[in-house]
Amino acid sequence: MQGFNVNKTKTLNAALYVLNHLGETDSHKIFKILYFADQEHLKQFGRPITGDSYQATKLGPVPSFLYGLFKAAEKGVHPFAEAIEMFTAFSVSRKDNIPHIQATKAADINELAETDLEVITNSIKANKELSFAELVIKSHDIAWINAAKKHDTEISYIDMAIAANTSHVMINHIVLNAENECSKN
Question: In what residue span(s) does the Antitoxin SocA-like Panacea domain sit (predicted)?
């Protein structure tokens, strides 16, 4: 169960915010910084920042929507007009066959809450100096392990919260927030 809907505008601006702070970097680092930010935001505030669906890949969690945007930016095409509008915010090049992303514009920080910005900034500080391998190891938490065991490799937000040692009270709050989010559809 995903439980939260991806907020495409927040996801776009969260990724741009990371890139505006780091400059050009590989997609792996962006994915992990946002994973840890979403995880910490769940722990502190009972909801993720992006709502993106993280998939448990061999190299750790990958946010589905953002991955699609980066692929569209690299290829220069996408079947949906909305995605075309969004992917132009990124420039993608390959170095040693690894996608490196560069922001082509500044993040609209008005689209991110103060708590979003605070948690993303902390995640950048905590993870920017970690190597590719260190990020893989760090992101292979219990949430990733549980999802990797299943046929459906989507990482549960509840498992993400548990992996962050979130209190039972906050986990119950997350469940209620997820149910409310799902009922909006």
Answer: 30-144
C-alpha gyration radius of the chain: 16
Domain boundaries along the sequence of the chain: 8-183
Structure tokens at 94: 């390959």
Residues 6+ positions from 64 with CB-CB distance below 8 Å: 6, 52, 53, 54, 55
